[in-house]
Amino acid sequence: MRKTLLVFGVSFILACILAVPAFAASDFTIFGAAQHQGQLTLQGTFLNQASATQTITSNLNPQTFGVFGIRYGHGKVIGGEHTFAYAPNFIESDSRALFYHSNLRVQAPFPVIKPYGTAGLGWIFTAPKSQTVTTPTAQVVGSIGDIGNKFAINYGGGVKILPSGPVGVQFDIRGYTLPSVSFNLPVAGQPVKTSNQSLNFFQAGFGIVFRFGAE
Predict the structure, then answer these.
(1) pTM value?
(2) Which of 15, 89, 146, 175 has the most C-beta neighbours closer than 10 Å?
């Protein structure tokens, strides 16, 4: 299943990139956004000192964290967009993440206000800020937000406001789904991997748009 998703994702990204005509209407966006993940129920199993298997369940209520990045878009009505973004805090403050995704974009060909919808595929690369994380009870190796490198689906929409001239603004809301994610739970000074589950979060952003190319 993962190999099929990977092949499909790579094929989709290459199709988006190769479909860019040199004369297409294009735009470049610098954006900042807030990401929010709802409450998570995490469950994993581990061996205790008596060598018996035990199950641990933890409720995690992540904070809302910021992300910033750049985005290149092309096409007047049907086109694509390609995004690089960085979150200095991801899920929790002890991990960070780098985002890349390529999307199909469909937008209304209005001269000033352009609503649009978008969906696509990509990857999220996460890393801990430190190999040792201090919790209320102990110091443990690893980080809850360090989930490795994960395939991601994203979807959403927004609006661009482009008055006369090359510069405008953009507002959008996007959802992200990571189909199979396991977390590190601190147990007796060591991380315990939880069962795989889907991770869903949304992102609300604002950007400055620079447009160029033929309209």
Answers:
(1) 0.78
(2) 146
